[in-house]
Amino acid sequence: MIHGNSIGHKSGRPAVFFDRDGVLNRDTGYVHRIQDFDWKPGSKKAIQYLNQLGFLVFVVTNQAGVARGYYEIDDVISLHNWINLQLKKIGAHIDNFYFCPHHPTAGSGKFTRHCSCRKPEPGMILSAFAEWHIDKKASFLVGDRQTDLEAADRAGITGHLVGEQDLYSLVRDIVESSN
């Protein structure tokens, strides 16, 4: 499992896990370049809102384009760094990015294999639990596919599908309904 740079510190705070493509940005297929990253409505505001409430915010994303040879790990890390630079402009941030470069059958290199981090497996979420001492009961995941919900369930947290609602409205509704 590979993940990016951590921002912040360990704490017992609740966390929100976001899938990336289809949740934070429009999923146009194997997004790995800044010029192809198109924020979905409410994404930046949702992250800012969660930061202000004291939630930890993580991205957990399958990046099979690495296994397929479409792009390199450094491309994923560069894009994630750019995402945080964009968020910094509004006083927001993602605490850590976790991504899985593997695929069980695609490609032919070292990233073509079964692993515990590729959703629907919960490995990326479990790594965050181990590294950040997260309040699991108050945490949740937002994804756009059934595999995201399965990963959340296997990690012991609630999963939500983003649907057509903008991300900020969805996150606000989830947080408010849990209080």
Give an account of the 3D structure:
There is one protein chain. With 179 residues, this protein is α/β, with parallel strands linked by helices. It has a single domain, classed as HAD superfamily/HAD-like (Rossmann fold, 3-Layer(aba) Sandwich), CATH 3.40.50.1000. 32% of the residues lie in helices and 15% in strands. It has a 6-stranded mixed beta sheet, sandwiched between helices. α1 runs parallel beside α5. The radius of gyration is 15 Å and the shape is globular. The model is unreliable at 1-11 (pLDDT under 50).
Describe the structure using short key phrases.
Rossmann fold, 6 strands, six-stranded mixed sheet, 179 residues, alpha/beta, disordered N terminus, 5 helices
Average pLDDT rating: 93
CATH class: Alpha Beta
Estimated structural class: alpha/beta
Give the tally of β-strands: 6
The third-level CATH topology is Rossmann fold
Query: Distance between termini?
Result: 34 Å
Order of helices and strands: EEHEHEHEHEH
Radius of gyration: 15 Å
| Major sheet description | 6 strands, mixed
Strand content of the residues, in percent? 5-15%
**Helical segment count:** 5
Level-2 CATH architecture: 3-Layer(aba) Sandwich
The percentage helix is: 25-40%
CATH superfamily: HAD superfamily/HAD-like
* Widest sheet, order of strands: 1-4-3-2-5-6
The coarse silhouette is globular
Short summary:
By secondary structure, the protein is of the alpha/beta class. The chain has helices spanning 43-53, 73-88, 123-132, 146-155, 167-177; strands at 2-3, 15-18, 56-62, 96-100, 140-143, 158-161.
